[in-house]
Specification:
The chain is an alpha/beta fold and 254 residues long. The protein is built from 10 helices and 8 strands. Strands 3-2-1-4-5-6-7-8 form an 8-stranded mixed beta sheet, sandwiched between helices. A hairpin with a 4-residue loop joins β7 and β8.
Length: 254
């Protein structure tokens, strides 16, 4: 049950037939693990908290750098040098004391990913390297937890929902293969990134996360498993690709 103050807070959701009181209650009971509190994670966190997701686990091992302030919207100049995960928890507590939130200042690896994603209803991964993304994907498959993966660079972003633990659905590794099991991806420091593009990716990822969390009620339609949305900031526009399950994938087909 939602208390009177929560009903008032989320009234604009509740009047939507696609959400309603049952959907808002589902969001309040959901547990989301957010990997990375950077350009994608910051706006995604703001809208997940704004949506009333009841339990959040915030994972990032980095500290705030001056170059982050161009796109990482929850941080200020006073935060330079401090832990992103800890600051993100402070932001959530100040924004909505009704959310259960905890922070983890760890670098995600194949060794600890399983413990981090356990008991989650959804993992939203906005980290900046393939090694972490694949470790998270494999852990989600093993734990039976759906994964929403979001990435951004320059003027383009990708947001995809994966449920590789299901027999007919792809995992993130099905999409990228095994070639990136190392910290070998390009970084935004090298290629550049429009700050607003990171905001679009993060808010769209939050929208898709809400879609997944409400899939049981059917209000916002199916969760769009194995679909990758490509966002183009220059056109602007968006196209959607289907990702096939790889029968030889070592992450979900072994």
């Amino acid at each position: 049950m939602l208390t009177d103050d929560r009903l008032d807070r989320f009234a604009r959701h509740i009047v939507l037939p696609e959400v309603g009181g049952a959907g808002q209650a589902a969001l309040a009971n959901a547990r989301v693990v957010l990997i990375g509190l950077g350009g994608i994670g910051s706006p995604a966190l703001q809208y997940l908290a704004g949506a009333g997701v009841g339990s959040l686990v915030l994972v990032d091992d980095d500290t705030v750098d001056p170059s982050n302030l161009q796109r990482q919207t929850i941080f200020r100049e006073d935060d330079l040098g401090h832990s992103k995960a800890e600051l993100a928890e402070v932001w959530v507590r100040e924004f909505d004391a009704g959310i259960d939130v905890r922070w983890v200042r760890d670098r995600v690896t194949a060794a600890n990913a399983g413990a981090l994603v356990a008991r989650a209803d959804l993992v939203l991964d906005g980290c900046d390297n393939f090694a972490t993304r694949l470790a998270v994907s494999d852990a989600c498959v093993a734990a039976g937890v759906p994964l929403l993966s979001a990435a951004v660079g320059r003027f383009q972003a990708q947001v995809g929902a994966f449920a590789g633990h299901l027999p007919d659905q792809a995992c993130y590794r099905c999409y990228v293969g095994n070639a990136f099991d190392a910290d070998d991806c390009d970084t935004c420091a090298e290629d550049g990134m429009l700050g607003a593009m990171a905001g679009w990716a993060g808010t769209f990822a939050a929208l898709q996360a809400i879609r997944v969390l409400l899939a049981g009620s059917g209000g916002m339609g199916e969760p769009q498993w194995s679909r990758l949305h490509v966002l183009d900031g220059l056109k602007p526009g968006m196209r959607t690709l289907s990702v096939a399950k790889d029968p030889a994938c070592k992450g979900c087909s072994a």
